[in-house]
Amino acid sequence: MKKVILFLVLPLLAFTACEGPEGPPGQDGGLYFAQTYEYENVNFTYYGGNNIYSVVLPVPNNIEVFESDAILVYRYEGTIDVNGTTADTWSLLPQNFFLNNGNIIQYVYNHTFLDTEIIIEGNFNLNNLSPTFTSNQIFRFVVVPAEFANTSGVDVTDYNAVMNAVTIED
Questions:
Q1: Collapsing DSSP states into helix, strand and coil, what is residue 149?
Q2: Three-class SS of residue 4?
Q3: Which pLDDT band, with edges at 50, 70 and 90, does 162 fall under?
Q4: pLDDT range class, residue 106, cuts 50, 70, 90
Q5: Are the C-beta atoms of 74 and 93 separated by less than 8 Å?
Q6: Using H for helix, E for strand and C for coil, what is the string for 9-36?
Q7: Under DSSP, is residue 101 helix (H, G, I), strand (E, B) or coil?
Q8: CA atoms within 13 A on the CB side of 158
């Protein structure tokens, strides 16, 4: 009989011991606020001493970026037809291009909360790199909270997946 009483009382004590003051409200699952902006007609400058092309693009004044935030950079690739609808295509940086004779270039970037530098690196002398890669480029920037970048599980290489996972603030 003691075992039966112990069997009934122990779970009751365990559940009453779990009560306590309510904690602070948490973030609603999957609700992340991101900001986006775009630069068109981006032209790179060649720096022969480093054999790179580079451009520094400031964060617009109407966009607030904290030091802990992540900035994802996408390069415009063109348009495609999706079920009769034209859609823009974007590629996440870094992005590689394999050129003739085994030559390779790569778009990379680094950022602060004030600006983003986009760099074109290569394994050959870039002095005469085609303007196809260095002129009139379009880049889209998505500023996401560090929490999203670290825990969302979203494939950040897929621009549409990122846009579907965040709420854009105007």
A1: helix
A2: helix
A3: low
A4: very high
A5: yes
A6: HHHHHHHHHCCCCCCCCCCCCCCCEEEE
A7: helix
A8: 8
